[in-house]
Amino acid sequence: MSETPAKSKTRSQFAPVAANYRLSVDHTDADDREVLISRLAFEPTHTALDVATGGGHTAAAFALRVRRVVASDLTPEMLREARILATQKGRTNIVFVAADAEVLPFRTDAFDRVTCRIAPHHFPDVCASVAEMVRVTKPGGLVGIIDSVVPEDPALDAFMNGVERVRDPSHVRSYRMEEWVKFLTDAGLSLRYISCAWKEHTFPEWVARTGRPDVVRREVEDTFLHAFPRAKEFFRVKVENDRVVSYSDEKGIFVGRKS
User: Fold this and answer.
1) Which of 11, 17, 120, 249 is most buried, judging by how many CB atoms fall within 10 Å of its CB?
2) Is residue 231 part of a domain?
């Protein structure tokens, strides 16, 4: 795997809090994952790759539907948590591989299905990672991606990406829907499905998940509390007794076919 300061930062950020992502309400929640699964047309003979698997929830769900799943992640501690989850769920057809999403260590045309869920906003070069996902997909195979997206409004885009960078130093950028369409089509995919779904985040769990100090958590909360009205409205910020209870963002869901 190629080592860069950004990727070292990602590893150092996730390594001590990896278990949080196995237990995370946001990552355990199956709603967006089930939409993706419904569009991927899995068959029992398929081999699937889940890139940046994190706590392994997506890989574990796929394992019920295909012959084999390869779960890859940049951070070894994440793979440890994904193994724990697979053991808990009795999934024996998952293989775990340490891998950089931008330089996947798999042969060209290796997988029937390739997915990545709630991770690309951490990738320093998202176009390189998409190109790699397409490369390792068989001709006629499907690539499915879910990630946080931001609206076209530049002020709302800047607000949410700014909040995320304070909360999580490994955050690079959440992109707009039209940016994702360009990434995927430029990589050679024929888009078969595009949708956007709202996801509500319970604020205390969301802000604590990254393991940042209390002073950072308070800074993030203050940013929401003092946000400009359009941001509070768009991101559905809920406040009770001067504390943030929850907020919501949008997840883009994309499925494309490799020619």
Assistant:
1) 120
2) no
Residue 9's pLDDT band, with cuts at 50, 70 and 90, is: confident
Helical (H) or strand (E) element with 253: strand 243-258
> What is the reported pTM?
0.95
Extract the runs of DSSP E, i.e. beta strands, from 9-134: 47-51, 68-73, 94-98, 111-117
- What are the two backbone dihedrals, phi and then psi, of residue 184, each rounded to the nearest 5 degrees? -75, -40
d(CA 70, CA 59): 8
Entry field: residues in the chain = 259
**CATH code, domain with 147:** 3.40.50.150
CA distance 106 to 138: 12
Domain that holds residue 65: 5-151+170-199+251-258
Determine, yes or no, domain membership for 62. yes
Cα 194–chain centre separation: 16
Q: What tokens does 78 get?
A: 């994440």
User: What DSSP character marks residue 19?
Assistant: H
- What pLDDT, in 10s, does the model give residues 102-124? 999 999 999 999 999 999 999 99
Question: Residue 239: beta bridge partners?
Answer: 244
State the Rg of the chain over Cα: 18
d(CA 70, CA 48): 6
CA distance 104 to 133: 8
Number of folded domains that form the chain: 1
Residue 57 lies in a domain: yes
